[in-house]
Structures are given as C-alpha cells and as structure tokens.
Amino acid sequence: MGNMIKVGMADLKVCKCPDALTTLGLGSCVGVALYDPVTKISGLLHCMLPDSTQIRNNSNLAKFADTGIDELIRQMAALGANKNRLVAKIAGGAQMFAMTTTNDSLRVGERNAEAAKKKLKEYNIRLLAEDCGLNYGRTVEFYSETGDYVIKSVGKPVKTI
Amino acid sequence: MSKIDLEKLEDSQFDVLKEIGNIGAGNATTALATMLNIKVDMSVPNVALLPFDNISSFIGSEEQTVVGILLEIQGDIDGMMMFLFDMKSAHHLVNSLMMRDVHQDENGMADFSEMEMSALNEIGNIVSGSYLSALSGLTGMKMVSSVPALSIDMLGALLSVPAIEFGKYGDKLLMIQSEFGEDDFVTGYFLLIPELESYDKILTSLGM
C-alpha cells in the first residue's frame, strides 16, 4: 500500500501505483477519478463549478469540471498515461440542503455531474461507474492498484464502485 | 469596481464587518438564551477569509459530522446564513427547547426524530431572524430569510455550499463568523455569508 495523497477543494492530483488519492467531504462538488488500467496512473479532480466559460475569474483550472478534466488528462499524460486508454469513475454532486428555491447555485451539484460527464464524452473516455446526486456528502478514495473507487458517507455502508 | 478585493482586504473593512458580526450575533445569542432559558456566551466575532483547501479548519476536520441549518437571505442583501453545531450540542439544544431532562448519554450520535429536526429548524429560524433584524436596523437595508433547511453531514460537504457561491469570484470564502456556547454543553457557530456584491452594499450603508 502506497501513500494516500489528499486532494483539496478546487484541486487535482495525479499519482502512480501503488499510491492512492482521496478527497474528503464532497458535497455539491464532484470527484472525477481517471485511470489508465495498463500503467495504473491515476488522477483525481475535486471540482466545484460546471463551466469555466461562465465565470470571469477562472484562473484556477481545477475549480471547474471542464478545465479541470483537461488539466487532469494533461498531467496524467505527462506522467506516462495513455489518453486513449483512460476510464473514469465519478462521485458527488449532491444537493446538501433541500431548498425550495429558485437559486441556481443550490442545484449546482446536478450541473457539476452533468458537466463532468459531458466533458468525458468529448474525450471519448468511458464512464465505468458513478455515484452522484441525492442529498448526502461523500468522502472518496481512489486506489491506483485496483482501480477501486471507495465512497464513504455518514450513517451509510461503505460503497466500492 | 468592487470595494472588496478578496486578495487584499483592508483592516478598516475587517473592523466594520466584525462589528456587524458582533451586533448580529449578539442579538441572536440573546434570542437563543431567552428561548431556551439558558445562559449563552459569545466569542468575539471573526471575519474569516478561508482558502478552499482549508475551509473546515476553523471548526475541525472535513469529515466531522455536524448539524447545519442553512437559510437564504434575499432583499437588499443577498447571501446565506448558516448555523453549525456539533451533534452533542444539537441534542442539548433540542432537549432544552423541548423541556426534557438534559441528560447527556454516551450515545451523543443518536439520530434525531422528525420532531427534533423540526425543533432545530425552529431554533435556526428564530435565531437568524434576530440576527438579520439587528443587521437590518443597523444598515437600514431590508433582508428576508427563507425557510431553514437542515442537513446532518460532513462539515466539508456542508461548507461546500457557500464555498461554491464564492468560487465564482475567487479561491477564498469570506464570511462573518461568531462562536457561541453554553459552558461545556453547547458549541455552535453563526456564519453570515453575504454575496460579494452585498458586502459592498453593507460597507456603503455604514459609510465606508
């Protein structure tokens, strides 16, 4: 078992086998894990917003689903991953508070997950599994050794996708 | 041009925002103490500018389970208000409100019944009402809060909701935070999180 590398909010990290990647307390944010099954090079993105083109201040690439996935693929390729082999698993995008609201920002979880899937499709990256939506937070761990994406939530059994 | 720059806040701006926290949270604390008939202390408010990767640090860890009550604010000022309690404090508050034996059992993590959740929401409603009316009186601006929504989950996941709002402006979350407590039984936080434009309005209304 290698090191557990922590990915913060609006952050991304890549690693080689046998290291693992984790991000704690995903709420409406989405955790996008990419994986090259041959080299076992892995990457994890914790993005907060769906679309960088809607926002003026978009210098932090990892904040957005679109530019975050671009950057994640770039860094993984630099480490030796083959872009054509990449597969994806995503989790998060919850709606933490049940608001009867018109405020778009509270439905951002759903939009984050959609934006991530759209971007993956553009790259022809296969989405192997997802655990998105609903109303609870998730802590995720991605193991480069096995490609397992482990999801932990409060008061729920641990899930592996 | 926005008066507030998330990268360089002036000391005088910090002071004014702190004073808002002082007046708002002071009123809210009094309301809480009166409603529950307990003595509630309040710390000096803090204007917190938190980078996203360290957002939970003022309370604890991202994975800590807490009770969060969120209200949306609309009117002259837009934004959110959030209360956070740890599980033990939330049980204690509910027990005080429902006039039950204040008995701290070992099982502080027990689930809340529907009745207890509704009681917690009501606490949020009354306390935020007094916070906002104090703020409204001070600034002369109108603010209305939404019906509260409650969530019991990981701290990081709850704080991601206001953080995402601020993600549109930069990589930091700015909020006015006050801690309150009753001896060893209750520790909780009031967070007032106006949108960035609303900070400007608040400062202007106070002659900044």
TrEMBL record, chain A:
Keywords: Chemotaxis, Coiled coil, Hydrolase. Transmembrane segments: none annotated. It comes from the Bacteria. InterPro entries: CheD-like_sf, Chemorcpt_Glu_NH3ase_CheD, Cytotoxic_necrot_fac-like_cat. Residues 69-126 form a coiled coil. Gene3D superfamilies: 3.30.1330.200. Its EC number is 3.5.1.44. It catalyses: L-glutaminyl-[protein] + H2O = L-glutamyl-[protein] + NH4(+). Probably deamidates glutamine residues to glutamate on methyl-accepting chemotaxis receptors (MCPs), playing an important role in chemotaxis. Belongs to the CheD family. PANTHER family: CHEMORECEPTOR GLUTAMINE DEAMIDASE CHED-RELATED. This is Probable chemoreceptor glutamine deamidase CheD. It comes from Lachnospira hominis. The lineage of its organism: Bacteria, Bacillati, Bacillota, Clostridia, Lachnospirales.
From TrEMBL, chain B:
It comes from the Bacteria. InterPro entries: CheC, CheC-like_sf, CheZ_family_phosphatases. The keyword Hydrolase applies. Residues 15-47, 115-152 form the CheC-like protein domain. Keywords: Chemotaxis, Hydrolase. PANTHER family: PROTEIN PHOSPHATASE CHEZ (PTHR43693:SF1). This is Chemotaxis protein CheC.
